[in-house]
Automatic annotation (TrEMBL):
Residues 539-596 form the Peptidase M24 C-terminal domain. Residues 314-529 form the Peptidase M24 domain. CDD domains: APP. Belongs to the peptidase M24B family. Keywords: Aminopeptidase, Hydrolase, Manganese, Metal-binding, Protease. Gene3D superfamilies: Creatinase/methionine aminopeptidase superfamily, Creatinase/prolidase N-terminal domain. Pfam families: Creatinase_N (PF01321), Creatinase_N_2 (PF16189), Peptidase_M24 (PF00557), Peptidase_M24_C (PF16188). This is Aminopeptidase P family protein. GO terms for molecular function: metal ion binding; metalloaminopeptidase activity. The keyword Plastid does not apply.
Length: 599
């Protein structure tokens, strides 16, 4: 079935490309800061492809178009691209070229590759430069071709900015600037161009609302040894925020003056830039007369290690959030089949339970509620017009989280609503085993997620099954639900970052099994890395769990578990009951006792 709307938009884009002398035009999923999630204003790739996932790049040429995305989105992308004329390129699959390889094979000498340089990371722009240089390919990066075609484009975001109290942040702006400057000095830089939105919010102890579910404000900063300049939309600042920034000696300039500011800098500064988040446009601006040190934002690691105040508040918030999720599971199990519940109304009920928590601010991402085969799509999102009705059979996967004044949560549970097959029980049991094995990791300082990933993946690999995504990611503190540099995955490709686990870093633990057309299973907790015994062999470490939501006992078949896995699971369930039951009524408490096997 043809998608005429997308085909017509692509036809208009190709006409514009011809007018501008552009042979290939690229549109990533990014804003001017290479953010993972973006405001509707920046959803150009979605506008021209119909693909709604959070990761993907669209490439358009005279007689074709291709979308590159990762394993989380293969099923979703296949469905959404149908009839558009856009071909799906499954990243990292055998025989599938990367975008660079595709361009190298298909673009002809003397042709032009175009993109909006503000939404292409400097790292990627440089990569395309290198790949295409030998074929004398031109790069045109100064025009957003979508602007004249997308006539009803949403307004540029400019939400209200708020100040995060130091009692909640745990550190003052001055302390954070001092730490940042110390790291700049170690990199031999006398200035830092900071462009990553959550790093900017962390550094200045402010929060915004320019991206759905991510409390960030469109901004840049230029930090020197003794000055801090923040580029932000002044209309987003009220008197209180302006006075706060002035009191902390932060010079405020209008957001869209950053290019002119950088052009006006005297030559010869040694400026640290993180090419993963600095746009190609800003990079090319600085490259003309400044010395650039290309490294990681020093704020990234500082932000990832949660300070004692943050850790204490996270423990409080995660407990409250876990109570809300547990109450939701009880409601779902006792009401399914007795009243009409859909994927959407189930997600709405869970959101309402979170809203009852006094510190609640927003969801940390749109809830993923997938019933039966819908759960096989890792980032499925139901809509009121297109959602499944739940029945007292099969399983519902719910991946959700909240933004609170005191933390950001991310939790997944797959819930048995009635009878499930023996195959699904086996898969669910082994996912639970995978979570518990990683929970009990004990390691010597110096390990990264690549070292520990096998603990979660091994029970699933033993069945000759894999989940085509990472096992874990860092989580922000009243910030983005996905945060680095820490992560958990077994395979690293060029450009990927891995980081040693430090005391105070958080990480998700979320293995899963996804069988297309049948079912999807994921169980996810958040954990804190903590120092353990230190002796002559070095510093040992372990994880402390933050999430306390029961694992579904109805879907567990212990015949598939070894004694250690059974012990770990029983210990977790017992702790869930001890921590959660004081906040439940008698009926909920009785159910939880049975669910966790306490009685």
């Amino acid at each position: 079935m043809e998608n005429k709307v997308i085909q017509d938009r692509l036809a208009l884009l190709r006409a514009k490309m011809q007018e501008e002398g552009i042979d290939f035009y690229m549109m990533p999923t990014a804003d001017f800061h290479n953010s993972e999630y973006v405001n509707d204003y920046f959803k150009v790739r979605e506008y021209f492809s119909n693909f709604t996932g959070s990761n993907g790049t669209l490439l358009v040429w005279k007689d074709g178009a291709g979308l590159w995305t990762d394993g989380r989105y293969f099923i979703q992308a296949e469905a959404e691209l149908e009839g558009t004329g856009v071909e799906l390129f499954r990243m990292l699959q055998e025989g599938v070229p990367s975008i660079e390889e595709f361009l190298e094979q298909n673009i002809q000498q003397g042709q032009t590759l175009g993109f909006d340089g503000r939404v292409i990371a400097a790292m990627d722009g440089k990569k395309y430069e290198k790949v295409l240089a030998k074929a004398q390919i031109c790069i045109a990066y100064e025009k957003d071709l979508a602007d004249s075609i997308w006539t009803d484009r949403p307004d540029f975001p400019a939400g209200k900015v708020t100040v995060l109290d130091e009692k909640i942040a745990g550190k003052s702006v001055e302390e954070k600037l001092t730490q940042t400057r110390e790291k700049m000095a170690k990199d031999c830089a006398n200035a830092l161009l900071l462009t990553k939105l959550d790093d900017l919010m962390w550094l200045f102890n402010i929060r915004g609302c320019d991206v759905e579910c991510n409390p960030v404000a469109m901004s840049y900063a230029y930090i020197t040894e003794d000055t801090a300049t923040l580029f932000i939309q002044q209309k987003a600042l009220d008197t209180q925020v302006s006075e706060y920034l002035a009191a902390h000696h932060i010079d405020v300039k209008e957001y869209d003056t950053v290019v002119d500011f950088l052009k006006s800098l005297p030559a010869g500064n040694v400026i640290l830039v993180d090419n993963r988040y600095c746009s190609y446009t800003l990079y090319k601006t600085l490259q003309k007369n400044q010395q650039l040190i290309e490294g990681k934002n020093p704020t990234e690691l500082l932000k990832a290690i949660k300070n004692p105040v943050e850790q204490a508040r996270m423990q409080e918030i995660f407990l409250k959030d876990s109570v809300a999720v547990t109450k939701f599971i009880y409601w779902l199990k006792t009401h399914v089949g007795k009243e009409k519940i859909t994927e959407v109304t189930a997600a709405d009920y869970l959101e309402q339970k979170r809203r009852e928590i006094p510190e609640f601010l927003d969801l940390s991402f749109p809830t993923i509620a997938g019933y039966k085969s819908n759960a096989a799509m890792m980032h499925y999102e139901a809509t009121p017009e297109n959602c499944a009705t739940l029945e007292p059979e099969g399983m519902l996967l719910v991946d959700s989280g909240g933004q609170y004044l005191g933390g950001t949560t991310d939790v997944t549970r797959t819930i048995a609503l009635g009878p499930v097959s023996d195959e699904i029980k086996k898969h669910y049991t082994m996912v639970a085993a995978a979570v518990m094995q990683l929970t009990h990791a004990h390691w010597l300082y110096g390990c990264t997620g690549r070292n520990l990933d096998i603990l979660a993946r091994q029970p699933i690999w033993d069945m000759d099954i894999d989940y085509q995504c990472g096992t874990g990611h860092g989580v922000g503190y009243i910030l983005n639900v996905h945060e680095g540099p820490q992560n958990m995955r077994w395979r690293f490709t060029g450009g990927m970052v891995e980081a040693v686990f430090e005391d105070g870093m958080d990480i998700t633990n979320e293995p899963g099994i996804y069988i297309q057309g049948s079912h999807g299973i994921r169980i996810e907790n958040v954990m804190l890395a903590k120092n353990d015994v230190k002796n002559e062999y070095g510093q040992f470490m372990h994880f402390e769990t933050l999430t306390w939501v029961p694992v579904d006992r109805e879907a567990i078949d212990e015949k598939y578990l070894n004694d250690t896995q059974i012990k770990y699971l029983h210990e977790y369930q017992k702790t869930v009951y001890e921590k959660i039951s004081p906040y439940l009524n008698e009926e909920e408490k009785e159910w939880l006792a049975a669910e966790t096997g306490v009685k």
